[in-house]
Amino acid sequence: MRSVKVGMLRLTNDFLEEVVEKQKTDARLLKLKTLIDQGKKLDIVIDVNSVMRCQGR
Hints:
By secondary structure, the protein is of the alpha+beta class.
């Protein structure tokens, strides 16, 4: 099972996949992803699980 530990919470693969899919359909997040892909420095990063995170959250 692929999972990520967030503080004391462990997120399962199914939940992470759902988050990634929802982020792909959010217009505001898609604009931010475009800026990240263009090399802009933002408070938002894309982690190794393809999840967009703001300030590590």
